[in-house]
Amino acid sequence: MEIKKNLTLTEMNLLYTTMIDSLYDDDDEYRYQFEDYLWRRAVIEAYTDIPIPQDMDESYKFCYDTAMWSTVMTHIDDMEQLNEVKNAVHRYCEHKEKQQLAGLQFHSLMEDMQSIMTAISNLGDLPEFLASFDEGENPLLGGE
After folding, report:
1. How many domains is the chain partitioned into structurally?
2. Is residue 143 part of a domain?
3. DSSP state letter for 33
4. What is the model's pLDDT at position 10?
5. Regions of the chain where pLDDT drops below 50
6. pLDDT tens for each residue of 100-135
7. What is the CA 101 to chain-centroid distance, rounded?
8. CB under 8 A, 24+ apart: contacts of 45-49
9. Residue 19: phi, psi to the nearest 5?
10. Is residue 37, in this structure, part of any structural domain at all?
11. For residue 82, how many other CB atoms are within 10 A of its CB?
12. Residue 27's pLDDT is what?
């Protein structure tokens, strides 16, 4: 069994992309409940040559019910490097959440505008009222 003391830039990027790919499901929903487990699994994969069980329950047991996590963590020389990757993952997730929220807000605004336009079009005389402004009249002031 080999445990690396630090990662190359390529390995850091692979750890980052593994986490990003793992944290979001097929519907692009963030899987908060699995974050710690997925982090442990990805770190063990990045720093060791140990095969991790493919079955999720078995993999979970491997990451939590064995000494593997603590063993890997005690062998890492550069914890700052590992924290940089974890912070980058969190920044990505925060940015993505803000983008999704902005998209939802925009969608909600568009639905509100559609409702307003539908209500206006159902007001009957409103088009004639608005057209009178174009003719130089001011219906609010009784003419001119």
Report:
1. 1
2. no
3. G
4. 96
5. none
6. 777 667 667 777 677 777 766 666 666 666 666 666
7. 10
8. 45/18, 46/4, 46/7, 46/11, 46/14, 46/15, 46/18, 47/3, 47/4, 47/7, 47/72, 47/75, 47/76, 48/1, 48/2, 48/3, 48/4, 48/72, 49/1, 49/2
9. -65, -50
10. yes
11. 21
12. 86
**Which pLDDT belongs to residue 132?**
63
Helix locations, the chain, DSSP H: 9-23, 35-47, 56-64, 68-75, 79-121, 126-134
Structure token pair of residue 32? 């908060």
- Tell whether 140 is covered by a domain: no
Expressed as residue numbers, the domain containing 28 is 9-134
Q: For residue 92, which amino acid is it?
A: Y
CA distance 77 to 95: 30
Helix axes 35-47, 56-64, angle to 10 degrees: 80
Report the distance separating Cα 140 and Cα 133, nearest Å. 10
Helix 68-75 vs helix 56-64: angle between axes, to the nearest 10 degrees? Answer: 60
Reading the block at residue 59, the tokens are 């993999």
Q: List C-alpha distances in Å: 99 to 43, 45, 82, 92, 106.
A: 28, 30, 26, 11, 10
117 found inside a domain: yes
